[in-house]
């Protein structure tokens, strides 16, 4: 059973006897919890919903909550968060405590829905996990698949009443780096970014790549990508505009030099790995980088030879020395870089 089926069943009150939701995508876990709450009679919810902190509770409290019958409703829902007995280490409970609880789970009343929640990983070898699996459902709330993520992002933009094309959705996902193995971004982060972009463009207006890049948390990095793109395409006016915008927004010349140098080093790295037969995704995993950054570097590698890159890196080192020794103004140094390598 996938997440959509689980959610559909909860909404239709087709409830399992017990559940265990765990994983890194807290958004999905909390969404399920909210739906469990909504399945109860609002006027009686204080009597029929118990949310227990699994790190603070005692075993008798858990068992008592499970065995208590609902009051003027069909079901009682008991939610136990971050219960120690589902994880690898035990501080507050013994092996005998675990066996004692497991023995009581078999006698859980049909009127009780028991929901265990772990914000993170569980120890799947634990007897308690196996017991929940046998009597109900264990689900890993992992990151969304490509298609599910696309649909989720599209729906969130629609809920914010803005228009966005499919290509812009793909760009948004790529820029955010949610799918990268090393990324700690969650759907909560993406939802915040979607709201920020939607609020900026306004209801009934269109979201474009320009707004996505402009408002992205990675805006400075995206500006550097554009700057290097323009230099590679020898478009002096476009490169100068990006550069001047960055300077006006308060970016330091030393910071710009540092980011340009970093990106050119990445270009050289990814080119070498590509020549060795690595795919884009394999390169991203090997270098522990955002796949979007790797993709940009691979595209930019077509516009610069290793010799030109080395020349640019040397120019940056020399300019850094000249600026610090008062031999050249900061802004002039970076403007010369742009002009020189656009006209090479």
UniProtKB/TrEMBL annotation:
InterPro entries in the record:
DNA_pol3_clamp-load_cplx_C (IPR008921), DNA_pol3_delta-like_C (IPR048466), DNA_pol3_delta_N (IPR010372), DNA_polIII_delta (IPR005790), P-loop_NTPase (IPR027417)
- Domain (DNA polymerase III delta subunit-like C-terminal) spans 221-341
Q: Show the Gene3D superfamilies listed in the entry.
A: 1.10.8.60, 1.20.272.10, P-loop containing nucleotide triphosphate hydrolases (3.40.50.300)
Q: Quickly give the catalysed reaction.
A: DNA(n) + a 2'-deoxyribonucleoside 5'-triphosphate = DNA(n+1) + diphosphate
* Molecular function GO terms recorded: DNA binding; DNA-directed DNA polymerase activity
Q: Where is the DNA polymerase III delta N-terminal domain?
A: 19-141
Entry GO terms, CC: DNA polymerase III complex
Q: Which keywords fit this entry according to its UniProt record?
A: DNA replication, DNA-directed DNA polymerase, Nucleotidyltransferase, Transferase
* One of the GO BP terms on file: DNA-templated DNA replication
The catalytic activity of this protein is classed by the Enzyme Commission as 2.7.7.7
Instruction: Tell me its family.
Output: Belongs to the DNA polymerase HolA subunit family.
**What's the name of the protein?**
DNA polymerase III subunit delta
What organism is listed for this UniProt entry?
Asaccharospora irregularis DSM 2635
